[in-house]
Records
---
Amino acid sequence: MAVCVPKGYLMAGVHCRIKRALRNEDLALVMSETPAVAAGVYTLNIVCAAPVTLDRSRTPSDRIRAVAICSGVANACTGEQGLRDAEEMARLAAAACGAEADQALVLSTGMIGVHLPMDKVAQGISAAAVKLGRSETSLVAAARGMLTTDTIHKLAGRTVTIAGHEIQITGMAKGAAMMGPNMATMLGLILTDAALTPERAQNALGAATEESFNCMSVDGHMSTNDTTLLLANGAAGGEPLEGDDLAAFQTALDEVCVDLAKAIAGDGEGATHLITIEVGGCADRQSALQIAKTVANSPLVKTALYGADPNWGRIVSAAGYAGVPFNPNGVTLRLNGFLLYEKGSPVEFDGQAVSASIRDNRDTLIQLEFSEGTAGRRFWTADLTAEYVRLNADYHT
Amino acid sequence: MAVCVPKGYLMAGVHCRIKRALRNEDLALVMSETPAVAAGVYTLNIVCAAPVTLDRSRTPSDRIRAVAICSGVANACTGEQGLRDAEEMARLAAAACGAEADQALVLSTGMIGVHLPMDKVAQGISAAAVKLGRSETSLVAAARGMLTTDTIHKLAGRTVTIAGHEIQITGMAKGAAMMGPNMATMLGLILTDAALTPERAQNALGAATEESFNCMSVDGHMSTNDTTLLLANGAAGGEPLEGDDLAAFQTALDEVCVDLAKAIAGDGEGATHLITIEVGGCADRQSALQIAKTVANSPLVKTALYGADPNWGRIVSAAGYAGVPFNPNGVTLRLNGFLLYEKGSPVEFDGQAVSASIRDNRDTLIQLEFSEGTAGRRFWTADLTAEYVRLNADYHT
């Protein structure tokens, strides 16, 4: 089974009443039985949360034993007290796993500007420590512990045999909203029993993030807490991967991260469509990304797809203000495979058929082709719905 | 009266069935009795509409006699045919005003990718030519002729005495959506009977736009058609303004443009709040603008205000990803005058009172103060509502 707990890890998810909802898990604890290599990528937001500051100072590492995650409170914009709380949360997690205080990392998500309820966090970590396990139930409970307004938990995995060792890569993530591109990423935790050096783990995670979480947005609002961690404890056996073996690992890691990124975009707050934007024919990959991201973040494009409306002018015009020079007479657009705009001119098409293809499928594909070169990029986003507005107008109160 | 037709102009608005709605004006004709100086600022979108291409080639000018405006069809993404249609529309407008073909400018707004119905445009221009007048009725009808989903027409004016001459400046504009910052602007037409040279008219319009229409957004989607024109026919008398007289004119022109920009933001599609964002304490004005614009375009900020929710973390975190370096411990935030966040730390505040102040007022004021310097900027936007989503999911079909 591709989604399972990699060798050498134990985990649990519990409800300790940080979130008001009665039954939802809001705290997860992940333990590595041996010191693991750990890498992290973090938000680029100047206003970053205390857990980001703490984890950033502790990664890359070769001795991490525990990760504690809580949802409901982000521990962001909380000043000096916030940093002390993050350190205490890490200390409690490490102690629960029989490790030293600085061998733990922490992740938090939820309300900004609220202090962590440390008594509940302490109770939660104690309760989770007793329940640590390797079953699918434990895995799902841990994945649920990081959710906020997500409607489903997000897990992805790959089992690959590299250099004679069966290696497992399993990732969990949360998304929903405050999801912006050009960030380090949202909350994600990827566990592997592969053997990696800290430097290679950091490079592998950075490369995978670039093509997955950084090619995804829900509302373009970069969070204060975005973090993805990669733990590699080497329990699969063998020496740290290098060369072709490392490349094979990278491919599997990329796939796990893309699966999670698509799961996050498809479960964007209020989303009814997972929109994939493929941009091709650009002078360079950065240009293709910039155009794809600009289309993805246009409220007019996102509402049109919510309305199953093949309003292609919104897509072409969004590309036009991406800040990337291109020949407007070289632009071709396809929507769910239907040709709508070719070399800068409108094309006759069956509007009813295109509209039906949008309405009847959760997956929507926008393909924009330019005439500047051969570089391309993929990007994922969600549509903008009345439910997104309702959720975010009502979230606080 | 500050909003009236300046000396030497005649205008009319008619319904010629470009728009499906039965009674709404969809064509306006504005005539200057003598050749007027004309300046224009235009969209920066690479995919720009045919009227933009035409007007850009004809401004600045010292001999414009007519402006024809139609709504319902944008004449954008329409290829060579679109440019021929724009030229024909200008020729018809010029002929109706007894002028030469190249003495007219055109503005269009509405559906992208649809060709202008030239028979209706021709009928509309003929019908408008017969009704040209200077009354308030004529002015309002012309202002209505450029509207799309706007709920009200937008007019602003100032009467100022400069160098012994009474000068009138009257502007009309349309907004509603596909409103993005860093554009040349939306549709706007500003008429004055002041005497200006073409170069000074262009500079005056550019300066006024920079502090008004370019400091305003509804949804951040830059249009293919954004245009503001300034016509100055000198009918007030006197030599072209210069020095202190020109500065006095600039002040009045700035006020007219700010009035129109605020009217557009406040009438954004589905809007229930006009949000003013004041950013201060920045190293330079560009940094302040960049922060204000990033806050203005965050869907999370916009939905929070729609929900009357003092969710200040969204505002502070949006500032953090604006791409402008700042000290996070030097940030202070006020919302409708209430202090919510001071020098990087949360402040105790009466959430009910702040929420009530948002709910009970259409005007909302966000004040963000940084500690990097003394530069500041104002920006206007609308909230993001379920009605915006409904309007834009249903617009095409």
---
Amino acid sequence: MTQKKKAVVLLSGGLDSGTVLSIVSNSDYECYCLSFRYGQRHSIELEKAAQIAKYCGAKQHRIIEIDIAQLGGSSLTDRSMEVPKSRGNLDEVNEIPNTYVPVRNLIFLSYAVAWAEVLDCKDIFIGVNCYDYSGYPDCRPEFIESFQRCANLASANAVTGKGEIAIHAPIIKMTKAEIIKKGSELGFDYALTHSCYDPINAKPCGKCDSCQLRLKGFREAGLIDPVEYAD
Amino acid sequence: MTQKKKAVVLLSGGLDSGTVLSIVSNSDYECYCLSFRYGQRHSIELEKAAQIAKYCGAKQHRIIEIDIAQLGGSSLTDRSMEVPKSRGNLDEVNEIPNTYVPVRNLIFLSYAVAWAEVLDCKDIFIGVNCYDYSGYPDCRPEFIESFQRCANLASANAVTGKGEIAIHAPIIKMTKAEIIKKGSELGFDYALTHSCYDPINAKPCGKCDSCQLRLKGFREAGLIDPVEYAD
């Protein structure tokens, strides 16, 4: 039996990163999943992440505590700010929503590179997506490409000649419907994923931007969302 | 009175970052100091950082908890590894010492960018230095330049046109002696700084690489290190 390559996979417990883990674990990789507790209001995301890692047969799942909340600036971590219900037609949005956590993906990817270096792993996967949600600057392809260059300059591998790290964003140019179709083809169980910004009794609200994007995606994919919504 | 510009200054409690804070606080900046608790064996560094921030009149000092230690890979955070006493002639060293924490500066700078964004601050200062210690890849000028490009792609400022972030590394091309001379000219008190990897009863050992570099720097600067060493 040949040894599988290692992959560090960022896993939030949401639909996008769950699909990415499904894609990677169905490829020739042994998966090391990395999640973050960063003052999210709801720990349900991390419970889902653990279930998804197990479901996909991940080798390891680590949860890193980061106290980004004390820096402020986001309604997802700052309890004094209200989560927006809907910002209207999502296609017309070009401002940055206040659910934005400053440079979150920059921080998450930096930890992923640290772990990859320790594991002697060359492949990092992240479930960013640039089409459905244009408001987050650190979801853009040019950011991912720039981060890869920067990470290889920061890493000991760059000095010791152990090889370069690649940052993979396999769903970055897929629509939500394409993502859902892809995961469904691979047999991924979307009932394990959590997307809602503001759940009611642990059930998704069905009203926030994230729920709306998800429901629209399932509709366009011609599939039923297996998750039970609050009334 | 005109309002001072804001600066986020990474502050470890060591000689280099202390000098940088001295330089920045003597310029036209209001300083927001950022330190990290990342499983260091000795909390003395963070106590020193707090004293230095106060001494230099910093506006704020935040300490972020990061649990990089669970990822392993460094004798500075992994208690099962031994800290090397001396690796011989430091000028001849080109391997990466096991005191290296994987991509530490990448992680620290990422948090700095997050805070800078929240503060609406455009200037980040870091005390990396490429001459005295060539073993750390994330202390090189090409890493700092690459990180600045990456940070501006990650940041909301890049989208909203609020202006770009600059990563400043004012001592990156200075020798340890030049750094010490500069700080001394500015009236900085090096008794407040801590450099030792392996202190004995809270006093620096005088033997580890970091102590040796420091002592060599004071010797070459023609100055006396005001810190009291262990016997």
